[in-house]
């Protein structure tokens, strides 16, 4: 039972820690996936030392971890409030060609990072951006501005 309680305590600690750390720190992985990736090797490392008691503890620990992961995903799926608390929400980084500095500072995203994503989206300037959104998985989605007459005029000037 001590093994189960230790895994639960570490799981909760890592979930909160990764949530506080921020979305961009772990790229495309969800917090739940990251926790599993971090904990499974740690839990089974003692079993690799060929001790019989540690093998049992490793199986119990990994089973507890996987059960917690499934249980957490079910709870998150059923409750929007818990989903926002555990997984987070998308954050607007730019709207109608203007950066949202407050959100950028909260998420520790630089304007250079956003401009890199703008270029990857095939846009030439911020004036063409309708939305730049930091997704819950850490990626940045850039959506072209629909009502951008300035952006269209700028592009027309560049083309021969």
SSE topology sketch:
Elements: H1 2-21, H2 31-44, H3 52-78, H4 80-86, E1 91-95, E2 98-99, H5 101-107, H6 111-120, E3 129-134, E4 140-144, H7 149-158
Antiparallel strand pairs: 1-2, 1-3, 3-4
Helix pairs in contact: 1-2, 1-3, 2-3, 3-4
| Rg of Cα set | 22 Å
Find the structural class using helix and strand composition.
Answer: alpha+beta
Number of domains: 2
Strand content: 5-15%
Secondary-structure element pattern, one letter each: HHHHEEHHEEH
What profile does the largest beta sheet have? 4 strands, antiparallel
- Helix fraction, binned, reads 55-70%
- Strands, total number: 4
Principal-axes shape call: elongated
Q: What value does the average pLDDT take?
A: 79
Distance between the termini: 73 Å
Brief summary:
This protein is α+β, with helices and mostly antiparallel strands. It has helices at 2-21, 31-44, 52-78, 80-86, 101-107, 111-120, 149-158, and strands spanning 91-95, 98-99, 129-134, 140-144.
Description:
This protein is α+β, with helices and mostly antiparallel strands and 160 residues long. The protein has two domains: 2-86; 91-158, 2-Layer Sandwich (CRO Repressor). It is 59% helix and 11% strand. It has seven helices and four strands. It has a four-stranded antiparallel sheet with strand order 2-1-3-4.
């Amino acid at each position: 039972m001590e093994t189960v309680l230790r895994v639960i305590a570490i799981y909760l600690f890592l979930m909160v820690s990764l949530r506080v750390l921020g979305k961009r720190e772990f790229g495309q992985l969800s917090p739940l996936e990251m926790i599993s990736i971090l904990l499974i090797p740690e839990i089974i490392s003692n079993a690799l030392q060929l001790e019989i008691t540690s093998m049992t503890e490793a199986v119990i620990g990994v089973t507890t971890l996987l059960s917690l992961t499934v249980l957490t995903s079910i709870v998150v799926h059923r409750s929007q409030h818990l989903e926002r608390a555990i997984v987070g929400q998308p954050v607007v980084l730019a709207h109608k060609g203007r950066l949202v500095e407050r959100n950028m500072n909260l998420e520790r995203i630089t304007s250079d990072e956003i401009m890199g994503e703008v270029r990857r989206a095939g846009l030439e300037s911020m004036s063409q951006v309708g939305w730049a959104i930091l997704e819950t998985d850490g990626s940045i989605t850039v959506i072209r501005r629909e009502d951008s007459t300035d952006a269209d005029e700028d592009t027309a000037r560049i083309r021969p």
